[in-house]
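Tutorial sheet, problem 5. The two components below are modelled jointly, 608 residues in total.
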Amino acid sequence: MHAPEFDSVPVPARIQSIRQLTADTSLFRLKVEEKLPSTFLPGQFIQLSVPAGGEIPISPADVPSDDGTMELCIRRFGHVTSLLLRAKEGDRLGIRGPFGNGFPVDAMSGKDVLLLAGGLGIAPLRSLLFHLLRHRSDVRSLTLMYGAREPAVMLFKTELLDLATTGSLRLLLTVDFLTETCQTEPTCNVGLLPTLLKGVQLEPGNSCAAVCGPPALYRCTIDELLLAGVAEGDIYLSLERRMKCGVGLCCHCAVGQLFCCCNGPVFRYGDIKDIPGAL
Amino acid sequence: MVRHFLADNSLGQLLDWLSRFGALHGPIRTAEGVEVFGPVQAEDDLLLTCRRTLIPPKKYLLPPRQVILNYTAADGYTLPDETAPQVILFGVHPCDLQGIAYLDRVFLGDRPDRLYRRHRDAITLVGLSCEPDEFCFCTSHENIPRNADLFLQHVEHGFLVSTGTSKGEGMIAGLEPLLSDLNIAPQPLSENRMMTRLREVAKNGETFPDSPLWEHFATRCLSCGACSVCCPTCYCFDVLENGALDGTTAERFREWDNCLFRAHGEVAGGTNFRPDRRERFHYRYLHKYLGFGALAGEPACVGCGRCRVVCPVGIDLTELFTEGGDARP
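Model answer (structure tokens):
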């Protein structure tokens, strides 16, 4: 796959629908007005342009569709996302990409696949989850462990529970703490995400894990994953950096001597464990 | 090797001739007394023995702020209709020529940068030999960098003029009356000890993790970023977009960024991957001396000495290489 040039012109994309997921997070479905720049792999990212706001790197939350739409999960974090959350259906945005490598879905073939999502990290992993569910017979088992701060900010909960009832996915949810209003919903574990990994034993060489979440998540889950038997080279981490150009020129996203935008954003743990500041 | 001799008193005629091909720029002194690359109005403006300009010629290839996209409600995002005027850049020292060669590799590699290409194609490089001082170290002050279209070497009573590109050859065709042929043996490469050490360091990927100098640097640094601004090979940029007051148009531009600034390693939500100066120094060191991405293993330092000159607190990253043995030229 050939990523476009840094100075490529964003392709126009209209907001087809906006679904508010939580107080500060919405799921946008964009209809790309021209032909899709290219198909994308789970874990790749696009650069989303908001006129007069700027551009932000975002990984799509679904898989490529025939109707030229894609879903993006947007949380209010900064200038551009604040503008986005004030946008209306029908507004025109812009898209460049896709950029980066994405999750190595072929390497997951035949294995027990564990997806570990923390907070907004569920968005890129939802893309991987949808991909793997479409090709469910390619992998031996599929488990999603998803942790959110509290029940009210757990994203896609109903959808995930529905998927789990089909039997093709093992779903484990956890929240950092329970809030008063949600105590009547004892559908998930209470505790940090790594607590779900306690006692889990996987077959080394025949298992792999894909992790995406806030920076702190990586440091506290890797030891648990290694203890569970996942090999260093089978732990795939989607790293967050400030990717401004997407093609290895602007130098904001360096991880050691590698670039998150073109060598990543998905890295094997074994490849980056010795790089200071990578995690 | 055939070079041509140009007498001192014919320099003005050469400059007049070169001005036919574009606006003549070179090292001049501003009204404030700063030595910079700028437009040359008269031969006397040119600083022929200038040690180094404050800002390297990268500003001609990567303007400090450059519009990359325009936005209008009607047309969406469009490429700017920008033209780069022809510039004859006179008096570029070998270190700066090497700096341009490095930028060419970054911006004209696998995925050429359109705006860089446009500016690069509009520039003719006329190199000029120089005398090293205690701040700089390069291997090339006696060798003609290959990317100079023309190169002038100071000799007694004039200059040796040589051509490095067919463009350069074409430009001096017709100047025969001013130039006399000389047969001169190529000069041997004079390898500078610091540059040799630097190449070793890059090749071996040395990071000096235990050096007490990191702490020493971090506690003194003011995070002013001057070392990066004046570096001929520092090219990190930020991408920003401003809406116009009319509410319907916008400009997206890139502008020089600086790895010594705290915001450089920040991501959405405020997490910072390089929150303290020590980490930012490590980052700068990695990029400058060990190289990123496709250029990993190749030092980007060309030995111009600017960062050593401008640092207000006297920080010199090359001290890392010379601990325990003075390799300073």
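Marking note: Chain A touches chain B through 41 residues (CB under 8 Å). Full credit if you identified this.
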